[in-house]
Design brief:
Number of helices: 7
Distance between the termini: 20 Å
Order of helices and strands: HHHHHHH
Number of strands: 0
Amino acid sequence: MLRLYALLPHSLLAHASEDRLRVMGQFVMFGLVGLVGFVIDTGTVYAMRHAVGLYVAGLAAYLTAATSTWICNRHWTFRHLARTDPWHVQWRRFLTANLGGFAINRGAYVLLVTFWDLATRQPVIAVFIGALAGMTLNFNLSRKVVFR
């Protein structure tokens, strides 16, 4: 991201400190990891929905995707940060810290599959909207609480 610094318009350079660019780079990486999580989340919902229903499939998918994104963020997005806690402590902290994002994410998902027939037929819509709804909160909590 620091290489892109030179490409910014002059009017933005005054606001583009190295710290802000680093955070922006982390946010982009977090978003890319989120896309991986989205694919895992959606795949799990589609694989399980007929066997257990959309609600249980949505919960199982969230846990699968959250674990996958924690691994990716640990080894890519926030790899430069010291890891003093054992992996299971950090994983538990990641899931706990992101409970607010979980509530927003799965709250949107449940509302959409309950009240919007298109989202019931195509749950990818509910998964995507839920993921977007929780991403910013999860990024800030992950950066400040989990990967510090």
